[in-house]
Amino acid sequence: MKPDQRSSLTRRLALSISLLLIAGGALVSLAALAYGRQAAQTAFDRLLLGAARQVVASTSVVDGRVLADIPVSAFELLALAPDDRVFYRIVGQDGQTLTGYDALVSPGEGRPDVAYYNLEFNGEPIRMIALTKRFAERAFSGSIQVLVAQTMRARNALAQELVGNAMLVVALVGVSMAILAIVAVYSALRPLYRIERSFSSRDPRDLTPLKLAVPGELSPVVDAINRFMSRLDRQMETTNNLIADSAHQLRTPIAALRAQTELATGESDPAVLSQSLERIHARSRSLSRLTDQLLSRALIIHRNDSAVRTRVDLRTVAMDTADEFDIDSQGRARELRLQLPEFEAWVRGDALSLREACKNLVNNAFVHGQPPVTLTVEARGDKAILSIHDQGSGPSAPAGLRAGERFVHADEAVKHSGSGIGLAIVQEVVRAHQGELRFLPDEAQGFTVLMDFPRDGYV
Fold this sequence. Notes:
Elements: H1 9-57, E1 59-62, E2 65-68, E3 86-91, E4 97-100, E5 114-121, E6 124-136, E7 141-151, H2 153-201, H3 219-265, H4 270-306, E8 310-313, H5 314-324, E9 336-339, E10 346-349, H6 351-368, E11 373-380, E12 383-390, H7 397-401, H8 422-432, E13 436-442, E14 446-454
Parallel strand pairs: 9-11
Antiparallel strand pairs: 1-2, 3-4, 3-7, 5-6, 6-7, 8-10, 11-12, 12-14, 13-14
Helix pairs in contact: 1-2, 3-4, 4-8, 5-6, 6-8
């Protein structure tokens, strides 16, 4: 099931915080309820203990008998709860009631000297204390139990009052926290609104990076947006360049091809017609090469941003390139020498882009250089190197400095035979793979072009 794309982030945060507050309020309420009951229980148990101790203090042994002169003050504290009733019983050593209510149940033997427990008396719950007093006199030796009980109306009312007050405090704190949470949510989401306003206020064609002060948690979002806009800007630039290059470069050869075709259709001399057809064929090959390179450059730039980088052995790139240069476009054999190392020369990149760059350099060597052409792969330290060597002198110094720019020919003397895009494609590939394009002219030994790439897996 697809998530609701219109679901509000504010609503999600508010719901999450509300659930946390409700869960926290429920836990605090349970704790307040337990605390209220325990506080009321402890307070009234102390009153029971005080009354029981006064009754114990009033007992004495006279002529071998236990007598109790229960003072009125023993129950004055318990009388602070006017709606409750008080019961008492003094149990002798033989279990007989010395005074008080016989129906009050004694806890029996084995209980501690001071014991609290709940019972039901006359159909009403009561709280009772059992206090044991021991005598060790000549006339009487043994123990008695003093039982004092009280109904639980006042203590229940006190517990409810404590819980009610605690719940009121919890409710007030919960409302305050909810308000603060709402304010905090809107404050935390304010940078998102700033990002939205920044996009809304800018020109649709403006793809410059966002420069906003945002919290650290939103920095990855802004960085991702900027990277996306950078890729989109490069794609738009590629599209614009392709359109501009096509309009600039294709208009002239197409017009020339059309003119030559029109001349050839009206020519009756077979020799002149044959020459015209040769020129048309040459112009068609040049136009086809130009179109291929324009499309290749657009594809390379697109793959630089979108293709998944994998481990590529430059030896495989060199062998695939050599397979495409066995014969030229006119069916003539061409000699391309390969010098490959024994071990792999791994790089991290796009195999198709690397092959395209290598093909352009080899093609330039065949067109503008002198045979034989040698394609070499080397692994030196942290570098994997792919080089193309021929016996020519290479481009002139000014042209060499500008090599890699679109429609700049390596040698102005032969610019009619090339489009000037090949080295631009090579430069795009090398830059995308964090490599370096170098030219090594040597009048005695020929001209070498090297592509240096970071070696993958080198330690």
